[in-house]
Amino acid sequence: MKKIFVTGNVGRDPETRYAPSGESFVTFSLAVSSGTKANPRTDWMEISCNGKTAEVVQNYVRKGTKLLIEGIPSVNAYINKEGKPVGTMRVTASTIEFIGSRERAEDADGFEHNSPDYGMDAPAPSAAPKAPAGFNAPGPSLQPDDIPF
Predict the structure, then answer these.
(1) What's 12's domain CATH number?
(2) What is the mean pLDDT of the chain?
(3) Which of 26, 44, 88, 123 sits between 20 and 30 A of 74, alpha carbons compared?
(4) For residue 139, is pLDDT > 70?
(5) How many structural domains is the chain composed of?
(6) Boundaries of domain holding 97
């Protein structure tokens, strides 16, 4: 079984889509910092989820929200409109945790979100997740000013 944990900032507001069966799912992009201090890099991943997790994401996640995602990774390859090969990383999320302070959960209009009932195994936005034993975070964390949008 494959499993991945990624932490990053949401790059665009979640978008709800529907499968041919009528089931809804949500997709959004996640900016993940990688590289070194001398050579920092941002990798973009497409995140998707369905069910109760999708409902929570649609209601409470916005561009810039910092999240910890646990899920199953997959890689998609295709030829773009210019005829060049392109690869994308997609994670089908099984667990999403909000990280950061409540003050950072403000929208651009200054509205502060109240603590919602998340309905999943995620702590309230003011609680930071615990790293697995022996986990050392590589490099500096991604700050909102580091995101190119």
Answers:
(1) 2.40.50.140
(2) 77
(3) 123
(4) no
(5) 1
(6) 4-132
